[in-house]
Design brief:
The chain is globular and about 50 Å long. The protein starts with 10 loop residues before the first helix and ends in an 8-residue tail after the last strand. It has one domain: NAD(P)-binding Rossmann-like Domain (Rossmann fold, 3-Layer(aba) Sandwich). Helices cover about 45% and strands about 15% of the residues. The protein is an alpha/beta fold and about 270 residues long. It has a seven-stranded parallel beta sheet with strand order 3-2-1-4-5-6-9, with helices on both faces. About 45% of the residues are buried. Helix 3 links the parallel strand 2 and strand 3. Helix 2 crosses helix 9 and helix 4 packs parallel to helix 5.
């Protein structure tokens, strides 16, 4: 494999995604939407996908313009392989290449006590967060004939245990393991695979999950700010790390999962 010399390239060149084709799943809102914005801002042509097709279309319409033309959107259910194939093919057809795939789509309802977890709940969590991520990465890699980058969104719950989220935490442990395995398998193809593991981030989806606790008296803002930096994380905090991971700034990074947690892992 030829050794790429990035030392002669300017900082702006290393950050630039101009001419690259990207897919972001689960991008109708929250972290996925923020990632789509940052990739578009860096020059990528972005396909915004989500099971909420209308939401994906709205995000695509708001993205900074691409030199390749308007960004596009597609309704995608990551548990449906045909849906993933359609997204990968659409991105490939646009510019004849697929360079970046961000596996952001996932579900994160609290499990409750593990002893009470229903089989269908466990199956759904693993189907979306693990099988969906695996299948999406597979379809992306099949089309990255010139190399590329796959980013898998994990979670800090993959590195520490907490009560009440056993199914979710298990699924994110699997995503971290999958990231390592795919990095090994895809390296000969010139494909990097990187994980990004946020802590609790202040997004509409998280607010919805925490709403019952907020109604019971939990200070949600204070809870989300319980980290070394003393503030809640926002979607763009994660998006900037994803941008780093897919850019040539991270050309020597693969198989690792990067925490985006304001030191919450270090502080426990």
């Amino acid at each position: 494999m030829a050794i790429a010399d990035f030392s002669a390239r300017s900082l702006s060149e290393l950050w630039s995604l101009e001419g690259r084709s990207a897919v972001v799943t689960g991008a109708a809102r929250g972290i996925g939407a923020a990632v789509a914005h940052r990739l578009a801002e860096a020059g990528a042509s972005v396909l915004v996908t989500d099971v909420d097709g209308e939401g994906a279309a709205a995000v695509a319409a708001e993205l900074p313009p691409s030199p390749a033309g308007p960004h596009r959107s597609l309704r995608v259910d990551i548990t449906d392989t045909g849906s993933l194939v359609a997204a990968a093919d659409m991105a490939l057809e646009r510019s004849g290449r697929l360079d970046i795939w961000v596996n952001n789509a996932g579900i994160y309802p609290a499990t409750g006590p593990a002893i009470d977890a229903a089989d269908d709940f466990i199956d759904r969590m693993l189907s979306v967060n693990v099988r969906g991520t695996f299948a999406a990465a597979r379809e992306a890699a099949r089309r990255m004939t010139a190399g590329g980058v796959i980013v898998n969104l994990a979670s800090t719950t993959a590195f520490r245990a907490s009560a009440g989220i056993s199914a979710y935490s298990t699924s994110k442990h699997a995503v971290v393991g999958l990231t390592k395995c795919l990095a090994v398998e895809f390296a000969p193809l010139g494909i990097r695979v990187v994980g990004v593991a946020p802590t609790v981030i202040d997004t509409p989806g998280v607010r919805e999950q925490l709403d019952p606790l907020a109604k019971a008296g939990l200070d949600v803002g204070a809870a989300m700010a319980a980290n070394l930096l003393g503030r809640a994380g926002v979607a763009d905090d994660v998006a900037r790390v994803v941008l780093f991971a897919v850019s040539d700034m991270a050309a020597f990074v693969t198989g690792s999962t990067i925490p985006v947690d304001a030191g919450s892992l270090a502080g426990h």
